[in-house]
Specification:
The chain is α/β, with parallel strands linked by helices. The chain is built from ten helices and ten strands.
């Protein structure tokens, strides 16, 4: 398993995303992933599966301290009192004393960002989260957050959509400059990578699928991790089979050349992505 060193700490670069996984499928999927060797699990309050994620971690038998566990505060819960209350509820559902990473899920204007960040840092200082970060924020917002957060409680991660068809150069620049983790969700573009000829051709050279090539491309980038959802055991296994080959510089450039503006997740409350 490749790990990324962020602010002196190693984080498993490949994680399991659990969006749309619920009930028994989620519980057994998390346990199976950890049994396979995954050590990075991502969930969120809005996924309505934190209880199953926590049970899956316990069912796996893997020591809690070996699992990098992330959850995210939903946009309706960003007022300070709500952040505190719902974070405590998340911890209870997960069955843990703290998470490894606590994120603000989306930018919300109705509560000043500084109030949100102050509460996030307080939760970190109280031991509810080892690290804090955000998700789906804009480059200039990242700059403001980095400037505002204290040196002893810096931005540890930013999670956003990222795959070969979406240019995230500006956010990647911030991750490199400020040494935070850039976690790619929807890294396989909801399956669109599977049909792309360039990715298929590169995969054929290595005996790999287009999906495996895509995940390898992501993890070979500095500061980048990926959290593909994998509902089936076969997909969880296949996603792990990316550590026995390496893409060459020309192959990396060819995939990077596919970058465009094919954004998949764009709800009505999303920020203006024109950056």
């Amino acid at each position: 398993m490749i790990e990324k060193t962020i602010q002196g700490e190693e984080v498993p670069a490949l994680g399991l995303g659990t969006w749309q996984l619920t009930g028994r499928q989620c519980r057994e999927g998390v346990a199976h992933a950890l049994d396979l060797g995954y050590r990075h699990i991502d969930t969120a309050q809005i996924y309505d599966n934190e209880e199953q994620v926590g049970q899956g971690v316990r069912d796996s038998g893997v020591d809690r301290d070996e699992v990098f566990l992330t959850t995210k505060i939903w946009r309706s819960n960003v007022a300070p009192a709500d952040m505190r209350r719902t974070t405590e509820e998340s911890l209870r559902r997960l069955g843990v004393d703290r998470v490894d990473l606590l994120l603000i899920h989306w930018p919300v204007d109705r509560v000043p960002l500084r109030k949100q960040l102050d509460t996030l840092v307080e939760l970190q200082q109280e031991g509810k989260a080892r690290h804090v970060g955000v998700s789906n924020f804009l480059p200039d917002q990242i700059d403001s957050i980095v400037e505002y957060l204290p040196d002893d409680g810096p931005l540890f991660a930013h999670q956003a959509e990222y795959h070969p068809f979406l240019d995230q150069s500006l956010l990647l620049e911030r991750a490199h400059e400020h040494d935070h983790l850039f976690t790619a969700y929807s890294p396989l573009a909801r399956g669109r990578v599977l049909e792309h000829e360039t990715l298929q051709d590169i995969g054929a050279r290595h005996g790999k699928t287009a999906a495996q090539v895509t995940l390898r491309w992501l993890l070979q980038q500095e500061n980048v991790s990926a959290i593909p959802k994998a509902a089936s055991a076969a997909h969880r296994e296949a996603n792990l089979e990316i550590f026995d080959f390496e893409l060459g510089a020309e192959e990396m450039d060819a995939i990077s050349g596919l970058r465009g503006d094919q954004r998949i997740l764009n709800p009505g409350f999303a920020p203006d992505w024109n950056y």
